[in-house]
Write a structure and sequence with these properties.
The structure is a homodimer. Helix content of chain A is 10%, strand content 30%. By secondary structure, the first copy, chain A, is mostly beta strands. Chain A has a domain at 10-97: Phosphoribosyl-AMP cyclohydrolase (Ubiquitin-like (UB roll)), CATH 3.10.20.810. In chain A, the strands form two sheets. Chain A has a four-stranded mixed beta sheet with strand order 2-1-6-5, with helices on one face. In chain A, strands 3-4 form a two-stranded antiparallel sheet.
Chain lengths: 136, 136
């Protein structure tokens, strides 16, 4: 159950499957383009506030406090819709993002591409030089 | 640090910020349409396997074992790219999804819309009847 007092509707709370520290993952996307902006964390009360205030509200794991996105940066996230996933451990939050989502100044937080070296379905490697004459 | 043996490159492992049970969130999207398909969990080794085998591999919190998406269902996820987020607690996995992503049979796992009752930027409520003459 939730660690902190919450006004979240009990029928929603009962469907959540939380991490050991009481959180669900919040995948945040721009409502019209579908761009995945960031991932944040919500406890029950953060989800309640997100559903009822129109502003995306998260739980900061590092600061251990609620965090209304944009409150200090001006990069508000106006909530358009929220969907819970099939096993209750994540919500998909569709927002209208003002400015940039990432505190680093980029539009989204996923700027750090990792090297994918596995085979692709067509048998060609993802990275490295391609054989002459084959499209990359 | 990781709880299980892993071949993940140390420079990547050093950038991860894990849940108390040693996991990062994996946001999975269809590479071309951008549709958010599901959220799953990865420990270091699941991330390593995802980066090096071409097949999305997760850690099952309920079964406490590795799980190659599609191994039993046939709904394979071929990995196109993986990006780490700015604070290291989530990866965005772009895949080519065969069939449906959700075990319930829907294309994505976010079918459970929650009621959003907060105000919108224009001051109109999201739900409930609209005043006569105003666009919905």
């Amino acid at each position: 159950g939730p660690a902190r007092p919450t006004a979240l509707a009990p029928d929603i709370a009962a469907r959540l499957r939380r991490t050991p520290d009481g959180l669900v993952a919040a995948v945040v996307r721009q409502h019209d383009t579908g761009e995945v902006l960031m991932l944040a964390w919500m406890d029950d009360e953060a989800l309640h506030r997100t559903l009822t205030t129109g502003r995306a509200t998260y739980w900061s794991r590092s600061r251990q406090e609620y965090w209304v996105k944009g409150a200090t940066s001006g990069h508000h996230q106006y909530v358009r819709s929220v969907a819970l996933d099939c096993d209750g451990d994540a919500v998909l939050v569709s927002v209208d993002q003002v400015g940039v989502a990432c505190h680093t100044g980029t539009r989204n937080c996923f700027s750090d591409e990792l090297p994918v070296t596995g085979p692709q379905p067509d048998g060609l490697p993802v990275t490295g030089p391609q054989p002459d004459g084959l499209p990359v």
